[in-house]
Amino acid sequence: MAKAVFQMDKEKQSPSAEGYKALRTNLVFAAQEQDCRMILLVSPQKDELAAQFAANLGVTMACGERKVLLVDGDLRTGALTKLLGSDKESSGLTGLLEGGKNLEQAVVPTGTPNLDLLPGGEKCADPAQLFSGKDGRAALRALRDAYDYVIAFAPDVERFTDAVVLSQSVDGAVLLLDAEATKLRKAESCKAKLEAVNAPILGAVLNNLK
Amino acid sequence: MNNQEYELDLVDLGKTILKRWKLLALVTVVVAAVSGALSMANRPEYRCSALIAVNVRSVSNSILNEDSDSSTNSNTSVNVDTDASGESALLGPNFQIQKDETSDSASKTAIKSKKALETVSGTIADRISILAKLDTLCKTLLTQEQVLRNVAEQCNTSVSQVRESVSVGVIKDTNLLEISAVADDPELAKQICGELANEAQNILMPAFDADSIEIVSAAQLPGSPVSKGMARKAVVAVLVGLILSIVYVVLDYILMPKVHTEWMVKNQLGLKLLGTVPAGKEKKSNG
């Protein structure tokens, strides 16, 4: 069983928890207004806190009996999968997108009620190719039907195009900005790349604010 | 929105500098350590000095540089003898004016005193003129190539070593000539200083019409090296380190600003801010 990294029950009064709750409120509102239930977290540059943020957001969103799926779109390193530490073997996202496996075979529980993880699966040299394929896009869209919310995590835009390609299959992209690390110029560049493919940008989140 | 102009918030800049205190401290310590190491690596230097009293009556014509527009030196040699009272006025602290004892009126005494005073003033002016020239002349005479060569031979060292180590100068408003020598070896410093002082006696006596060229304080073996002002250097190094690190932080802030405020997200990125999450005890992963 996968381990949860952020236990809302123990830390629900912390400033961080309040920040996640406020974000949840905005995302739920966006989901209601714009039918935006599949969200992609996009980092402008390499962010060591991005995977943790995705996990915490998933835990927060799963409160209130909403079924939430975390998708580890980092098929090179599997950062989110490593963080959540799943023991169950699964074909993961790679298996799902290549068409050989179904959702039940790919998804693993996280230990947090209502929160599942779709691990990256077998490492892939060209994830962008997988995401942009016809079968890949159809499989990703199908995730919306099985869950109330889907939170996809992808590697940073500065190094890879995976997030830009994935943005075509989601309802909205959220820029994840590290207040202590994200350079303004890189954030601008990231936004420009998403706008170039007409990605639906919902907004930005300022993380690690001191 | 893609603004090319960025607003500089000085308060925020100040907070950023304070946040990076660890970097400031590290750079300061490194610069101070490097400076200290370099200072310690330098060999200690020893300084030896000798004092020579030059009691000058006059300066000979061949030595003086004629000052053609000088109105005070109407003679080619400065004659300090006076006839105000029939007694010569001596250079130095013991000069005196004697009243004409045959005078029996206050007015005659006053006139003679006035003349004596004018002469003394002239004498003082002459003295000042001589002292002013003494420093220049001594330096010129004692740093001649031949003199340095003689000293180098006596000390069994090179002429360049002697040239670099010696300094000659008259102490201000006195007739005391100070000869100093600096070297890595205290013995050598003493030797150079002593030899040059001897050369000074040989050279200055004929050069000046001197009553005496007397070594007041001979060269002594220096007991400890010259203080290098380590405390001052340390303070300077700390300040340099601090300034360098602050300049780096400021340049980084200005040239590569980070998105760390709501204002920047909204106004410079033109995005809706969906939420802010304060820094917590997050685990870092390779993302």
Describe the structure.
The complex is a heterodimer of chains A (210) and B (287). By secondary structure, chain A is α/β, with parallel strands linked by helices. Chain A has ten helices and seven strands. Chain A has helices at 8-11, 15-34, 50-62, 79-84, 92-97, 103-106, 127-132, 134-146, 162-166, 184-196, and strands spanning 38-42, 68-72, 108-109, 115-118, 149-153, 172-178, 201-209. Chain A has a seven-stranded mixed sheet, sandwiched between helices. In chain A, strand 6 (172-178), helix 10 (184-196) and strand 7 (201-209) form a beta-alpha-beta unit. By secondary structure, chain B is an alpha+beta fold. Chain B has helices spanning 10-19, 21-41, 106-142, 145-155, 159-165, 186-207, 230-255, 262-268, and strands at residues 46-59, 166-170, 176-183, 208-217, 273-278. Chain B has a four-stranded antiparallel sheet. In chain B, strand 2 (166-170) and strand 3 (176-183) form a beta hairpin. The longest helix of chain B is centred in the middle third of the chain and has 37 residues, at 106-142. The model of chain B is unreliable at 61-103 (pLDDT under 50). The interface between A and B is large, with 52 and 31 residues. Strand 7 (201-209) of chain A pairs parallel with strand 5 of chain B.
Low-confidence stretches of chain B: 61-103
Termini separation of chain A comes to 34 Å
Q: How much is the average pLDDT of chain B? A: 75
> Looking across the biggest beta sheet of chain A, what order are the strands in?
3-4-2-5-1-6-7
Classify the oligomer: heterodimer
Strand order of the largest sheet of chain B: 2-3-1-4
Q: Bin the strand percentage of chain B.
A: 5-15%
Percent of residues in helices of chain B: 40-55%
Q: Sheet with the most strands of chain B?
A: 4 strands, antiparallel
Contiguous helical run count of chain A? 10
Parts with pLDDT < 50 across at least 5 consecutive residues of chain A: 1-5
Rg of chain A, nearest Å: 16 Å
Profile the largest sheet of chain A: 7 strands, mixed
SSE sequence of chain A, one letter per element: HHEHEHHHEEHHEHEHE
Number of strands of chain A: 7
β-strand amount of chain A: 15-25%
The radius of gyration of chain B is 35 Å
According to DSSP, the number of beta strands of chain B is: 5
